[in-house]
Sequence to fold (462 residues):
Amino acid sequence: MRWRAASRAAVALAGAGTLAAGMALVLTAPAAAGTTLGASAAEKGRYFGTAVAGFKLSDSAYTTILNREFNMVTAENEMKIDATEPQQNRFSYGSAEQIVNHARSRGMQVRGHTLAWHAQQPSWMQGMSGTALRQAILNHVTQVATHFRGQIYSWDVVNEAFADGNSGGRRDSNLQRTGNDWIEAAFRAARAADPGAKLCYNDYNIDNWTWAKTQGVYNMVRDFKSRGVPIDCVGFQSHFNSDSPYVSNYRTTLSSFAALGVDVQITELDIEGAPANTYRSVVEDCLAVARCNGITVWGIRDSDSWRSYQSPLLFNNSGQKKPAYDAVLAALNSGTNPTTPPPTTTPPPTTPPPSDPPPTTPPPGQGDCSASVTVNQWNGGFVANVRVTAGSSALNGWTVTIDLPSGATVTNAWSADRSGNSGTTNFRNVSYNGQVAAGQSTEFGFQGTGTAGTLTPTCAPA
Ligand code: XIL
Fold:
């Protein structure tokens, strides 16, 4: 802490010296400025972070690099659901706190990762569904965010909730089956618990602007911003490899999300083979976007990587700097400082979303409700998501009726009670989504075999 404060003062002095008398520069140039990833990023108003594994904090080769180079830390596994709530309502923060304390006592900040995720759930949660799971995950979000309140720079509130491939839709998971609004419910709970932390949605394969998954997340963030759901940032994991390579439209992706009014952060960067040019491009792309807060690499040495066989990081197994390190440092040092404030009116995204616009819900009549449906059809089966919107007075229960074409059979539904499974099929609200305020919406879904065709749902208040 002490030497960092001193080096910052030296930077300030050097700046003043440069202005007052250029000749003095050589004498006042600070030793630390521009020579480490964290210091160089800080000069550009950014951070440079790494994932940290708690059990490695006793490895001095590891902590030497950590403490020297980085000013942001993410717990690689220690803040995940299985680590923080191994038994329901019995929270365990020891290893997470070890990392938080290591970081904060040395002037580094902390990204929280992650409050809600389909993976690395404790077994008690894996077996849950419906209202019980919805309550459990919101309790988890509330408890963990409250515990670390004031200590977290930004939280990955929800991790990896979108599907890979061309659907652009949500990933199926036990959390998703509690209702499509589970993500916004998690963000609202996180905001209430720690109003000072930035709240991020975090995912992989959302780097390429033309990919359906990128557009799906973009549309969700746009929707959240338009409805006042508390979201502050999007995290791009950016695990680049031959299946998911860095592409030159990455900068367009970052700036398009930023134009929605959120910050963007590169949260888990690693690049197969660690090509110096690609690392340089990523840094340049972040620096080109005023709302790109910083970059986190997913580990320090190649041997620390979850994909160590790809040698994707900035330091080799012996802790020596690789060419990619030099490229990153040089790019940080040559970037311009974003002294101009971000524009107050946000420009539209550079390219229009390639995916279809979301279905428009017809305006409901007085004391009424309406329903709209989107269908994801594949050969032999489909998933339908239905949005129920209240009219000008609140709903206290609803029923949606859908006429299925012959050959289409519903196999399961979520967030609604179903009667019938073919032909005229009724879906009734469950306990937690029957009350819908005037003009507001809730969603349910169902899965089936056969071909859904064009479905026309009708909604009736209960
Ligand atoms: C990885 C960790 O690096 C591994 O140690 C663990 O076994 C699995 O998870 N996306 C994420 C991270 O959000 O949490 C994952 O971390 C990597 C992919």
About this structure: The longest strand covers residues 369-378.
